[in-house]
Amino acid sequence: MALLIRNGEIVTVGSRVQADIYVENETITRIGKGIEAPPNAEIIDATGKLVFPGFIDPHVHIYLPFMATFAKDTHESGSIAALIGGTTTYIEMCCPNRNDDALAGYQLWKSKADGKSACDYAFHMSVTKFVKETESQLRQIVADGTASFKLFLAYRNFFGVDDAEMYQTLELAKRLGVIVTAHCENAELVARLQQKLLAEGRTGPEWHEPSRPESVEADGTVHFATFLENTGATGYVVHLSCEKALRAALEAKSRSVKIHVESVLPHFLLDKTYAERPGVQGMKHVMSPPLRAKHNQAVLWNALALGSIDTVGTDHCPFDTEQKLLGKDSFVNIPNGIPGIEDRVNLLYTHGVKRGRLDLDRFVDAASTRAAKLFGLFPRKGTIAVGSDADLVVYDPKYRGVVSAKLQHVNNDYNAFEGMEIEGRPSVVTVRGKVQVRDGKFVGERGRGKMLKREPSHF
Ligand code: URP
Ligand code: ZN
Ligand code: ZN
Fold it and tell me: What is the mean pLDDT of the chain?
């Protein structure tokens, strides 16, 4: 059925225009004023609303065996939560561990999503070892449409790679034109500092940050950048959390190293005092890199406004209270992760745009367009244009609400952003022309989401 979105303010990077959007067969076919629709078309009145391209979360974990447990969401729950929050595409980290076969892992991750997600999705393929069959397996995975890799410098013996493996992955990525995302923390320093703190009897969640200080992340970032420089590959630092690491990335960029930066919602809005709360309240705010000293937040917002930070993701990774308590005797056993897939767009709009830290153009760029461009989805996703997929967010800037676990669709029993105000939320969300959300409710088709095939573009 055709869909007409009438009289909204259409916001894309570089343009704001009051117009109608007409959609046929999943695709935007016309944009203009006074478009007439056939009698059977579905009509949405967007007067007084903003119309954004569907938002893209470039960093989520849905299926994740990790730290002796599993992240809580499924593609059913995660995609519905994403859509209610305005995210119409997410890129999941496919994370087989070092003992798993990479290709079998890739098939497993795909099978978890297939037919289950209500929004579109893609994968970053984690390279967690480099053995004789790795090159041919990665070639098959890229040919299947997964044109981005992931490296972990941290989590030694599980996801983490050594320098030889990182070099081989980057060298292959350069040849294949594939962008490589990386978690940048020096694994040796993390292990040493964890041991030292535990030996001193420092076991609570407040010691998680000191075990992975800013200098350890900065060192990881420098290290990754040096490998990019010497292989010519294109890299993307995930969840960059602090000024020291940002300086390292930008210094590399100033030397023409092809490096991009993502920061994630928790690091803009939460600081390390959250993880210093007693007991399980602190554990709920443990992720890696850790929540940092507050002064870093202003640095991140400023870099985001300038575009030095390219994208805002979530690193969505839900573990419930019981799972967090796996670390009650030692912070090294607290499952690392903070969910945010449902709240990213509203909190970024509120604390970025409404608080004057971010203009609307950069908001759309950081939360949608830039990720589409970096990860081979543009212009199918990430913009509103004739020929693009009709993934649209009709956004109500007059809505007022408060983030609460009681209201969320993420499969978790707490929300790390509990009590934060939101000034705006999606009133209608479409996935390829089908209305999936209305005013905070999922009203659409489960399993509508498709895996997005992407071509390499970083030669
Ligand atoms: O704490 C985090 N970030 N958990 C998810 C795994 C990762 O490092 O991205
Ligand atoms: Zn990570
Ligand atoms: Zn992650």
Answer: 98
Residues 6+ apart with CB under 8 A from 426: 84, 85, 86, 345, 393, 394, 395, 396, 437
Could you tell me which of 20, 122, 52 has the C-alpha nearest to residue 365?
52
Does the Cβ of 287 fall within 6 Å of ligand 1? yes
23-43 pLDDT, tens digit each: 999 999 999 999 999 999 999
pLDDT score of 20: 98
CA-based R_g, the chain, Å: 21
Distance (Å) from CA 59 to ligand 3 centroid: 6
- Residue 174 contacts by C-beta under 8 Å, 6 or more apart in sequence? 231, 232, 233, 234, 459
CA–CA separation, 99 vs 141, rounded Å? 18
- In 234-387, alpha helices (H): 243-254, 265-269, 279-283, 295-306, 321-324, 344-348, 360-364, 370-374
- Residue 97 is predicted with a pLDDT of 96
Say what the pLDDT of residue 1 is: 82
* Predicted TM-score of the model (pTM): 0.98
List, for residues 53-99, the tens digit of each pLDDT value.
Answer: 999 999 999 999 999 999 999 999 999 999 999 999 999 999 999 99
Q: Atom 7 in ligand 1: which residue has the minimum CA distance?
A: 288
Q: Considering only CA atoms, which residue is closest to atom 3 of ligand 1?
A: 288
Q: Is-contact 151 183, C-beta < 8 A?
A: yes
Report which DSSP code applies to 354.
I
CB distance 61 to ligand 1 below 6 Å: yes
CA-nearest residue for atom 4, ligand 1, is: 337
Closest ligand to the CA of 315: 3
Distance (Å) from CA 106 to ligand 2 centroid:
18
For residue 428, the cross-strand partners are 394, 438
Distance CA 447, CA 434 (A): 12
What stretch of H or E contains 134?
A: helix 134-143
Instruction: Report the half-sphere exposure of 53 (CA within 13 A, side-chain side).
Output: 36
Residue pLDDT, tens place only, 375-426: 999 999 999 999 999 999 999 999 999 999 999 999 999 999 999 999 999 9
The secondary structure of 135-177 as a DSSP string is HHHHHHHHHTT--EEEEESSSTTTT---HHHHHHHHHHHHHHT
Q: Please compute, for residue 316, the number of CA atoms within 13 A of its CA located in the half-sphere on the CB side.
A: 34
Tokens found for residue 9: 């303010």
Tell me if 194 CB under 6 Å of ligand 1: no
